[in-house]
Every structure is written in structure tokens, then in C-alpha cells.
Amino acid sequence: MNGNIVTDSNYNLKVNDVIAVNDTFQEERPDLSADESVKFKILYEDEDLIVLNKPAGVVVHAGAGNASHTLVNGLVYHCGNALSSGSAAFRPGIVHRIDKDTSGILVAAKNDYAHMKLAEQFSVHSITRKYICFCFSHFQPPCGRIETLITRDKKNRLKMCASNTEGKKAITIFKTLTDYGFASKIECELKTGRTHQIRVHMSSQGHSLIGDILYKTKNYSVPNEIADYVNHFPRQALHAFFLKFIHPTTNREMEFTADLPQDLQELEKILSSFSKVK
Q1: Mean pLDDT of all residues in the chain?
Q2: What is the rounded CA–CA span in Å between residue 247 and residue 228?
Q3: Phi, psi of 15, rounded to the nearest 5 degrees
Q4: pTM of the complete model
Q5: What is the band of 120 on the pLDDT scale with cuts at 50, 70, 90?
Q6: For the residues 196-211, what does the mean pLDDT come to?
Q7: What CA–CA distance (Å, rounded) separates 272 from 124?
Q8: Helix (H) or strand (E) holding 271
């Protein structure tokens, strides 16, 4: 600044100050190397796209705190250079995302044309996406529509929150598949695709997802015999089980389903065994 290095982070700029930026600064680039250790199940693949079932615990692409060992690294290992350039250099092939600790179906593009056509469908919300989640408490009514705005939480930047006054429109259609009394198995269909949408919407209705520490709103009543297991479930109980879209080059309707992974099957079995609804 004005020929001197500024070390005071509270320095206030003044009129006529001259600012020089060190051009040797190098932005840290994420690791896009192939990683065989990143596992996923392939549901379908052709020259335009790949549909896969992502396990919980895998980050989709590199970001803050996750520089490598992502789904992208696994895709690079499997597809090599046959991936679209993506919306950014560090996420080739990635058309949409699900959270690290959410399991389920994703579609990735293997060329830029396929990416563009798939992205258009996501943009106009013509793609059908359905999830299964396990939530605390009993839903009344058992099905319905949640419509809010979703914005960044002002108190915790890691969270999103439902709002009536600011943010982006978010719509979730839900229905109860199983009512356990103290918990529920819910099917959610996304009509929009906002960050953490299902987690935010369920929490806003007083039904936090089992295992979702970030959005848990209160302590819920659970049978004593399984309270420790349920209250310490190691990830949000959320699985993307259904995806339907139009193939970008053949124009055929493509539909895919993925069964609940083993951990959620076990959770379902335990909840059922202690169900209070007969």
C-alpha cells in the first residue's frame, strides 16, 4: 500500500491510496488425480453420461477441507479424460451434488453437450428426484407440501435456514411411508434443489433427520432400549433413491432406483422392532 506492506488487517482505505497486489500469489488447486480407492456402484453408463450410487462419507468434489479422495477423483480414475469440463475446473462431470453423508443416485456428464442438456433439466426442475429419510417424531398430517425460501443462516455459516422473507424458493413434497410413533420413514420429492433442502425443511417442521447433528432442533423422545443407537446414528439418515431424466442425446426417459444402503436398512429394522404404532 503506497509502497509499503500493510500488515494491519484493520487498515481503512483512504482516497488516493495506491494498492499493489503480489502477482506471485498462487491459488491452491485441488487434487484431480485418479483415485482407485473412491468406490461407487455404477447403475448405468454410456458415451454421454454415467449414473452412479454414491456411498455415504464421500464428498462429491474438492472444497474447503476436502482437497482429494472425492467422488471426482474416483470418476477421473474410472473415466479418465472422458468427463465434461463441468461448471468449474475442479469438478469435471459434476452436474449436481448430494451431501457428503447422504447416500444415493447421481448422474455425471462425460462431455460438455451432455452436461449442458442435463444442467438445463435441473435448471427448469424437470428432473424427478426422490429421497428416503428417517426423521424424529410423528408427522401430522402424514403428507404434504413444504414451501419456503432458503437462505444462509446468519448465526452459523455452515447452515441454511428456512425463511419467509429472503433466500431462494424451495419446495419439498413429502409423504409418510412408515409411522413408528417416535420416528417416521418419509419419502421426499424435490421440486427445487437448494443446499440442504430436505434437512432444512424437515427440521423447520420439527422433524429433524435422525443423525443430523447440524439441524437437530431439540431432544426427541425415543424408546430407552434404542435411544443411544438412534441419538448417535453416525450420519444423517438420508438416501437419494430415485432419479428420472431425459437422456441428452437419445431423448429417452431414463429412470433409476437405488435400494437403501446397509446402515439405513439396519436403522429401519430397529425402528420397526420398537414401533409404537400397531
Answers
A1: 91
A2: 45
A3: -60, 135
A4: 0.87
A5: very high
A6: 97
A7: 38
A8: helix 262-273
Query: What's the one-letter identity of residue 265?
Result: Q
Which of 124, 151, 183 is the last residue before a domain boundary?
Answer: 124
Positions annotated as catalytic residues are 99
State the Cα–Cα distance between residues 50 and 36, nearest whole angstrom.
17
> How far apart, in whole angstroms, are the C-alpha atoms of residue 128 and residue 244?
5
**How many domains are there within the chain?**
2
Residue with cell 462429491: 60
pLDDT of residue 21: 65
Domain range holding 61? 29-124
Structure confidence at residue 25 (pLDDT): 46
Name the grid cell of 27: 491459488
The residue among 124, 156, 172 that closes a domain is: 124
With b for 16 or more beta-carbon neighbours within 10 A and e for fewer, the 64-86 pattern comes to eeeeeebbbbbbbebbeeebbeb
Q: How many residues does the chain have?
A: 278
> Same structural domain for residues 139 and 229?
yes
